[in-house]
């Protein structure tokens, strides 16, 4: 029963962590007037910490969920940074700007705002998110079938 409860808790907390950390990353980027792509690694570690609350998840599934969650977190943070930087000076509200940005425009502006160093941070974050569950599973003893 405790593993079911912790899996439910991790499933409930994961969207909160993704949206909350994307908001934190957006605030840091807006305040510093930089992309703050190093936050991708911190976000990946945060996602892995929440997934650690569900020990019943297999390492392969945990790696896939962590990789997908980190990808969504990075995309959402970049979308928010771009939308707010473009929309607010044009008179849109913060939330309204998020809905007005189109995918092609976002992709173009992301290409202009991010350079190779930002890409390195994001790739490292995805490597941490996808690789750590598999590496840590090799260190743990196999669960006994009682």
Mind explaining what this structure looks like?
With 146 residues, the chain is an all-alpha fold. The chain has one domain (2-138). The protein is 79% helix and 0% strand. It contains 6 helices and no strands. The chain has helices spanning 2-32, 39-51, 59-87, 94-100, 103-113, 116-139. The longest helix has 31 residues, at 2-32. The radius of gyration is 17 Å and the shape is globular. The two termini are 15 Å apart. The relative contact order is 0.15.
Defining traits:
79% helix; mainly alpha
Q: Give the overall shape.
A: globular
Oligomer: single chain
**Rg, alpha carbons:** 17 Å
Order of helices and strands: HHHHHH
Total E-strand runs: 0
The major pleated sheet works out as: none
Number of helices: 6
User: What percentage of amino acids are in beta strands?
Assistant: under 5%
Low-confidence stretches: none
